[in-house]
Protein: Glycosyltransferase RgtA/B/C/D-like domain-containing protein
Amino acid sequence: MLGWLAGVLWRLWLGQPLTHPIAHTDEDSYLNVARALAGGPGGFSSETPLFRRAGYPLLIAPAYLLGSDFAATYKIIQIVNAAVSALSLPLAYLLARRMFGLGRWAGLAAAFAAATVPAGVFWSLVGMTDAIMAPLLLGWFLAMHWWLRDAGRKRAAVTVGLLTGILYAVHIRGTILLAVYLGFLALALWRRRVPVRLAGLSLVPVALSAALNQAIILWLGDKVHLRGDIVGAGTLEVFTDADRLRVFAGSFGTNVWYMCVVTAGLAGLAWTVSAVEMLRPARDAAFRWTAGLALAGTFAVTAGAALILAGLPGDGDALYSRYVQAFVPFWLLFGVAALINEAALLRKPVLRYTVVPVLLLVAGGLFVAYRLRYAAEHGQRLGYGTFGGPDLITVTAGWARLRPYAGTVIALAGLAVLVLLTRLRALVIPALALIVAANAVTMSVMRDRLVEPLGERFSTPIDLAALGVGPGDRVALGGGMTREGYFVMYHEVYWQDLAHVPAGEPPADVDVVIGRYAPGVTWDGAAYGFVLLQASPKKGQIAVWRRQ
Structure:
């Protein structure tokens, strides 16, 4: 309980500089849907008809009932995120004890290492589905292991189905995991690992979750208007177009390398153990099948994400790890367990298993470097930004560009240190404490270098309430707004969906206009009978005008 509370408070401190969304436009989309579900005005969503999910907005919708303004609402959302994300600690502890057979103190230390990994912590600071994906996956694997230890348990079967349904309702990744789960069920039934009746029972919550998701979408109707394109044509061409196939391979390989780097090679070690167990079973069925499910789910999502990204226009991203980051805490925990519980989990000395992560790190680093060089030589632009991989950016100090060689060297050094320290039983806890310390330092640097600047960039330049603008006023946005001005003020006007006045005289029912305020592009409200209330020529470049 105290560990969970400490995790909540730590996450709230990390997110303290943020008062408005920073991960545009996906974060805005989830918040707009949540606002609509709470009975407020609708708004836009960057989702596509195929990808629409209501699970996360449903979770945070009550924040719009409790908050009196957007800043208060956003803080409540951060509290909800922190409370759910911090559940990674107790879930990881239970996995460490039950699936990996670690002792009490070693299990607790390993759980802290997994629960503090930046890949799982960063997204809890913002209003994104990723805030809750890591604990959901840890819970899913834990429930699966629980069920497989005694296949006749009804509660375990229902819990697995419930978590599968929630994953489906939260994000398109959940759809991929549902497909993996259905394949798992088919195989388990064929091998007579689970009873037919309980397999069917586990699908009941899945069907109910899918139905609820669709019912919410139908209820919303066009209150939330979609801006995303229908995914289809580009995705289908991936395997028939050489350029798109190249983007697919690049995205897939980069994400595999990324997961190895941010776990200091422990993910690669865990994958090796899982694969060996699939080919030459030596442990109990619950361990083997859970590890297999995790392995299949991870690489299915990695491939699915690469497929989707390759189907989009353009040359892709140098790194876009968001879709796979939720798996990092589990594989870090698995890799740690393999190091410190070697006798129970490994068939051969650990050094033989580390050959695979070393090869993945070296080959992956060379592959990513080649991809970057190839793109530069052919005049292609690979996307690179904060949300592609904030943890990797921080660890490698790659603030301006992706640094594959630095990432590879750092991960190899980390793997060597962990292998050496865990050879002596007395140094196991210090080795795990080193991981926790590295996680904490990484998040602190990330807060200073990424979170705080973004929080300042997307914060309120003008206090509308202080100007007497609030519910009852009909507000419109002018054309040519800066990105900062548009997204901040869009959420500040929380009582309505903002209309737009690209140019000319605003409609008669508009009381207040928030327009661009900069030399040469200032919206002149005085020409239409508006009086200037306040202007912010530097931050946001906006001005607030009220009709006289």
Observations:
- The beta strands are 43-45, 224-226, 475-478, 499-501, 512-516, 530-536, 542-547.
- The chain has 24 helices and seven strands.
